[in-house]
Amino acid sequence: MAKQYRYNPALPFIRDDVQGNLCINGEYVFSDTRDKLPLERLLRWVSSPNPQKKDKQQDKFRPEIHVNNNFTESPHDKIVWLGHSSFYIQMGDKRLLTDPVFQHLTPFMKRRHGLPCDIYQLKNIDYILLSHGHRDHLDIPTLKSILRHNPDCEVLCPLGFEPLLRKTGFRKIQEAAWWQQYNTAGLSISMLPAKHWNRRFLTDYNRTLWGSFSVQYQSQNLYFAGDTGYAHHFREINRYFPAFDVCLMPIGAYKPRYIMEWAHTSPEEAVQAFHELNGKTFIPMHYGTFDLSDEPASEPIQIVRKMHETQQLKGNLHILKVGEEYIWQ
Fold first, then answer.
1. What is the CATH number for 264?
2. For residue 53, is it within any domain?
3. Tens of pLDDT along 270-283?
């Protein structure tokens, strides 16, 4: 069994006790062993009825859209949800997009709501943060559209994506291993762990890395979780980042648990992770835009809202409409 540690030698580590991400036979792993969803669980999901099928069919929830054509024009530091895991983030004089996906995924997996603005209005973008390669997080048509209007923007991503991104047309790309800091102007951005996996084609299972991000500007500190299951890495991150002002946390696509717990947090787990990160403001994401799992569309946000009302979520909860601006205080 061939083992090696991979990293970007051009970037510094923010920890002195790591040596990169472990690859076993060319596959990245979360801990120290190869991991894969058992086939029998997948077959069970495909062959079993959804116990919430009726509730899901009757649930017509879609995130509310706040039409907003000029949020890129104001000078305020802000966060704007664009649906799913896509955010526009403005910190200082820098503008970022996270996991931009603005199209239907397939003819059978359509986006459930529109955008608050036209893509061409997302201009002067400095950095695109890509957490991993799944098609609901890395969409080639969307990236090409952004690049047309932002030819100088730079992609910050995990290891392994440079060939795909160069074919897409990007010239500025930085790959990083977990605990490496990107070379960025005006911001401090680091690649951090996540419990997930990657595949875009049949033969590329975990050939590329996945991760989460810390973004720091002066006293502001933001955490973008990407896609992740619940595990020890949140407590580990907290040892090196004692607190986050804002945490962008995934709450949807968590049922059935015997399938989804491997790679997606439930709403309750997302709140637990938020506490372990010592977060101040919880902004939910990864719900309502695409139908990816068995729970009814409105269930995850209802759970998080209830946890806040009953003080099980210790901190601020800010549920954004699509296109609504969260102004950084």
1. 3.60.15.10
2. no
3. 999 999 999 999 99
